[in-house]
Design a protein that fits this description.
Elements: E1 7-12, E2 30-38, E3 44-50, E4 64-70, E5 75-83, E6 94-100, H1 106-116, H2 136-140, E7 145-149, E8 156-160, E9 167-170, E10 181-184, E11 191-209, E12 215-219, H3 222-228, E13 235-237, E14 240-249, E15 257-266, E16 279-288, E17 291-303, E18 306-308, E19 321-323, E20 326-364, H4 374-377, E21 378-387, E22 392-393, E23 405-406, E24 411-412, E25 424-430, E26 432-433, E27 448-451, E28 454-461, E29 476-477, E30 482-483, E31 490-492, H5 493-497, E32 509-511, E33 516-518, E34 524-529, E35 531-533, E36 541-545, E37 553-559, E38 561-562, E39 579-582, E40 585-594, H6 613-634, E41 637-643, H7 645-648, E42 656-660, E43 668-680, E44 686-694, E45 708-709, E46 724-725, E47 729-730, E48 738-739, H8 757-760, E49 761-767, H9 773-788, H10 794-808, H11 812-818, E50 822-827, E51 835-841, E52 846-847
Parallel strand pairs: 9-42, 11-21, 20-51, 20-52, 31-33
Antiparallel strand pairs: 1-4, 2-3, 2-43, 3-6, 4-5, 5-6, 7-8, 10-41, 11-20, 12-20, 13-14, 14-20, 15-16, 17-20, 18-19, 22-40, 23-26, 24-25, 25-28, 27-28, 29-38, 30-37, 32-35, 33-34, 34-36, 37-40, 39-40, 41-44, 42-43, 43-44, 45-46, 47-48, 49-50
């Protein structure tokens, strides 16, 4: 027989979403009806009707329907939905139809709710793949919730699996005695082990003054120190380059010259006595300029003067003598050097790091099995996080601009209508005010969508990657390409030119192609043709640059084309949605990203992640994943019971139910409504079958503990400087799980950025060689004296030459080579790694609500309880 009494069924159009008096009718001959609400599933209505012998989905038929019930006071809508498909019993007189509460915009509704759930600690993009960060089910993983669709309004909500919107209390008189059943499903997991890891590259750039300004070296081989002193831009290895270097002599040794001088004197007196000096001629040479370190007379020769006008020769003939006095000497000089030298190094650290966090969370549950297998009790979860050293861009979706003014060219990334969790790219082609109802965007490039007075033009489907590439010159760029332009290394031009100012005349400095410089006025340029630049000559060519990128912002190519010339980085405008021309390419800024490890591109100094505030947020998200699984497994007791139809119409899977029955351990059970089946049979029997899921917990609590001061006494320093032991932090927005935050202990080379001189200079020693000036001058003297000897024989000539060769081995240059003076620097490498660290984090037990006390006994039968025979 068909349903008798107060039920209504009306076929309607899809847009008849409001129930009214026009739907108070019976469009089909219905024999039975069952409405099923199941946790995490869309509501379902199953009806048996007389076969109309017309295709249920024929174009002339409506396939959306309202189902309602008259409770005596009012007609209450119970279901609105559409036919799932054609029935299989097409030749039978009675056919069964399945109608589902599935709104046409279900994906958009779920997505809108999911956006509101992207909050810490239940959501963390670090441990969600970039392609899944908008996927509703992935977003829900950190929450102990399931999706719920209202059978009448189609409102989509995220439904907590433990706590309900409200509670329905069923006394012993509210449910039927014989309909109650209890079952134990999969036993609760006693513990879950989480093993997660993140990686990043610790980066840093900076300058360190190695010499602390100019230092002076007094030595004999200053020319060697000057020539060997590192030059700007020299790669020193270990992650260091010379940023500034200068070395020059302040004593003038290299400029000293031998200057010859002479003087003469004549005695002009008319009368002379014996022994008077009549004339004197003196000439000498000595160094002019510089400072003499040591000197020594090499040779000397003297002769007394003779004046005898009466002298005769051997034949007795007059031979007057007039031999003037004479003194000749040669002197060797060793010049002193005083070298002023300075050096500043530029360091560029790129140190790969990996951190693991391992923790175990045990559920504080009652015993369910006496000998559960290990696989039943425990589980291992693993997660691999994103690179926490690069920006994670936060993209604007449609909700960000709904109801607001939208400028021409603005880009949003609404949810892809074809791919759950995916993105489409929409660019504003007509400015205006966006609507308040989510448009049905297209993921086909070029298709436009009206949104209020705004018109969006699709750029296709895209999910920008966190690891976007750097800008590339002279490359063809497709529309939709995403980049993150990096900042190049920049040198102050005055610093590069400084070494040439210490020469006379001043000399130029060689500049390599691709060198980015900053002028004194703060403007930038890049060398596009290598050459020299200085006061006398300038062959290097510099091209001005309007600006350089920060490295923080992402850009999307909104117009395809060819990028600009080598080295000429475009002046990227980092204002959100601003455009930048790059030859024939147009780039549009789509936002800046957050670097989880902190800092900004090229300056990610973090030596740890999980011990930071941001890392703790990731740790809390990981614990939320564990918590959700443990809570779901803890609902292992299911109780099914029957109640009357009227009571069942008020039940939803968003509520909890308290069931009183003396057969239940402890006499009462509390659980989340997992299912509710409202049914009416062809005999007119109506009722509701209810299933609740009860937690087998102990109902304990977790308390937050401030801990004991471990650094100094309490109150001596501010909280930010104090460290504590025995700390317990309760997971934010929960009351059932706590943990001890990890503390960082260095396990690497100890470098902390930005670097200080004392951090990296391992050796700074000036090695002074022996003073060889005396030995060198002595050898010079002997050689000079030998050179004045007249050999008496060939053997004497050979011996003299042999000795002079031997003395030449003791020349100043040879002796300085054997006894060098030099400056030694040893720097700790910054290009170390990889570094690995493991944190074993202690968690409290997860306290689970006691939905039923399995250890308690039954309380006996309650007199007068309803029974169904």
């Amino acid at each position: 027989m068909p349903i008798s009494g107060p039920f209504y069924f009306a076929w309607v159009e899809p847009d008849e979403t409001s129930f009214d008096v026009s739907h108070h009718r019976m469009d089909e001959y219905i024999f039975s009806a069952k409405r099923t609400l199941a946790e995490g599933e869309k509501p379902l209505l199953e009806i048996e009707i007389q076969n109309p012998h017309v295709g249920i989905l024929a174009p002339s038929r409506k396939y959306w329907a309202w189902f309602a019930w008259d409770n005596g006071d009012e007609i209450v809508p119970l279901f609105f939905g559409r036919v799932v498909g054609s029935p299989v019993e097409i030749f039978e007189e009675v056919i069964r139809l399945q109608i589902i509460a599935d709104p046409a915009d279900y994906k958009q509704r779920v997505q809108l709710v999911a956006e509101t759930l992207k909050v810490p600690p239940f959501y963390d993009p670090v441990f969600i793949d970039v392609s899944q960060r908008d996927d509703p089910n992935t977003i829900l993983e950190g929450h102990a919730k399931v999706w719920d669709v209202d059978p009448v309004t189609h409102a989509v909500t995220a439904n907590d699996i433990i706590v309900g919107d409200s509670n329905e209390d069923f006394t012993a008189d509210d449910h039927f005695y014989d309909g109650m059943q209890m079952s134990i499903g999969q036993p609760p997991a006693t513990a879950i082990l989480m093993d997660a890891s993140v990686s990043w590259t610790q980066t840093a750039h900076g300058l360190v003054d190695i010499t602390r300004g100019y230092r002076h070296y007094n030595c004999l081989n200053g020319d060697g120190i000057i020539s060997e002193w590192p030059k700007p831009m020299t790669d020193l290895g270990g992650g260091y380059k010379v940023y500034f270097a200068d070395a020059f002599d302040t004593a003038g040794a290299a400029d000293a010259e031998m200057v010859s001088m002479s003087s003469s004197w004549q005695n002009k007196e008319k009368k002379h006595r014996t022994g008077d000096s009549l004339s004197l001629n003196v000439s000498w040479s000595s160094p002019m300029g510089g400072k003499v370190w040591a000197q020594q007379i090499l040779t000397y020769e003297s002769q007394s003067g003779v004046l005898d006008p009466f002298a005769k020769d051997s034949d007795g003939d007059p031979a007057p003598l007039n031999i003037p006095p004479r003194y000749t000497e040669s002197t060797g000089y060793v010049m002193a050097w005083n070298v002023a030298a300075a050096m500043t190094v530029y360091y560029e650290a790129a140190r790969p790091r990996t951190e693991r966090v391992v923790f175990r969370v045990a559920a504080d549950t009652q015993a369910v099995l006496t000998a559960a297998e290990l696989s039943q009790e425990s589980e291992v979860m693993t997660r691999s996080g994103a690179d926490v050293g690069v920006p994670i861009v936060s993209l604007l979706n449609w909700s960000s601009v709904a109801g607001t003014a939208v400028a021409l060219g603005q880009i949003i990334f609404p949810d892809n209508p074809s791919i759950p969790g995916g993105k489409s790219v929409q660019r504003c082609s007509t400015a205006g005010t966006a609507g308040t109802v989510h448009p049905d965007f297209s993921d086909v490039a070029g298709v436009t969508t009206n949104d209020g007075s705004v018109v969006w033009s699709s750029m296709g489907a895209a999910t920008p990657s966190d690891n976007a590439v750097n800008w590339t010159a002279t490359a063809y760029v497709n529309a939709g390409t995403v980049i993150r332009p990096e900042r190049p290394f920049v040198v102050q031009l005055n610093t590069l030119l400084l070494p040439g100012t210490h020469t006379f005349p001043q000399s130029g400095v060689t500049i390599a192609e691709g060198t980015y410089v900053q002028y004194a006025d703060g403007s930038y340029a890049v060398c596009t043709l290598a050459g020299e630049i200085g006061p006398q000559i300038s062959t290097a060519v510099f091209t001005p640059l309007a600006s350089l990128p920060s490295g923080r912002s992402y850009f999307m190519a909104t117009t395809a084309g060819q990028s600009g010339a080598q080295y000429l980085i475009p002046p990227f405008n980092e204002t959100l949605h601003a455009s930048t021309a790059d030859n024939t390419v147009i780039w549009t800024c789509i936002g800046a990203g957050e670097i989880p490890a902190g800092g900004y591109p090229g300056e990610v100094h973090a030596a740890t992640y999980f011990a930071t505030d941001r890392g703790r947020s990731s740790l809390e998200y990981l614990s939320c994943l564990v918590r959700a699984k443990l809570l779901y497994r803890a609902r292992c007791i299911e109780i099914t019971f029957d109640c009357d139809y009227a009571r069942g119409t008020a039940l939803t899977t968003r509520k909890t139910a308290t069931l009183h029955d003396p057969r239940i351990a402890g006499g009462v059970a509390l659980g989340k409504i997992k299912g509710a089946e409202l049914s009416v049979s062809d005999t007119g029997v109506a009722g509701c079958r209810v299933t609740i899921a009860c937690c087998a917990g102990k109902g304990n609590a977790v308390d937050e503990v401030a801990g004991d001061p471990a650094y100094v006494d309490a109150g001596y320093v501010a909280d930010g400087y104090q460290q504590h032991d025995n700390v317990t932090i309760v997971l934010p927005d929960t009351t059932d799980l706590g943990y001890a935050p990890p503390l960082y202990v260095a396990s690497d080379d100890g470098l902390t950025f930005p670097l200080q001189r004392q951090d990296i200079v391992l050796v700074d020693q000036f090695h002074i060689g022996a003073d060889v000036s005396g030995a060198a001058l002595g050898s010079m003297a002997k050689a000079a004296q030998l050179g004045q000897q007249t050999p008496g024989s060939q053997q004497d000539a050979y011996q003299i030459q042999r000795e002079m060769k031997m003395l030449a081995a003791n020349s100043l240059s040879k002796l300085l080579q054997a006894n060098p003076t030099w400056q030694e620097f040893q720097l700790k490498p910054v290009s170390a790694g990889p570094f690995n660290k493991v944190y074993n984090v202690k968690f409290t037990d997860l306290t689970v609500p006691m939905g039923i006390d399995l250890q308690a006994g039954a309380v006996g039968l309650l007199q007068g309880q309803n029974r169904v025979e």
